Task: structure prediction
Amino acid sequence: LSLYFEDGHDDLDDGFDDYAADCDGIRITAFLDAGQDNLTPLGRLEKYAFSENTFNQIVARGLLDVLREFSDNENDFISVMETIARMSEDGPTVRSELMEQVPNIAMFLHESRPNFPAAFSRYLVPIVVRYLTDPNNQVRKTSQAALLVLLEQGLISKADMETKVCPVLLELTEPSSDDDYKIEAV
Result:
C-alpha cells in the first residue's frame, strides 16, 4: 500500500528515517510496504504510528488510504480505528493533522461501511469533542473546522450532538470558562 508519491526517490530503507518532517518533494514509501521487516501491514502501521520519529503526522495523513485498504476485514478495520484513537493522544502536530483527516475518513466510512454510525460515534466523535477543549490553539481550530464540516455533511447523529457535542459547547460558554474558549464555542 503506497500512500504518498512525489518525485522519484527510491533510496528509502525503512520508511521515513532519511527525511525531515518539513521536506517538500520527497517520496514517502508506505510504511505498510512488504519486505521492510517481519511485521504484518497493521503491525507496521502501529510501529510507525507510535514511534518517536517525526513522521507520525504523515501516518495521520495516510489513514484514509489505510482504511481503504483494510475496511473489508472487520478485525483489521477495528485495529485501524483503535490505532486512530491511540494516535489522538500524540503531540499537537499529529492531533491537528488527524483532525484535518476526520471529515474525509467520516465520508469514506459513511459511503463504504454499513455500521458507519456506530463506528463513527465510538471512535471519531469523542476525538473531535475532546479536541474542542484542547490546550493547543491549532488543534482546537482544526477540531472546530472538522465539526462544522461533519455537521454540514449530516454525518453526526442527533444523539451524538445532544449527548456529546452540545454539553461540551455549553460548558465552554459558562462564565468561568476562558474567554478564548467562549468565543470559539459560540
Q: What stands out?
A: The radius of gyration is 18 Å.
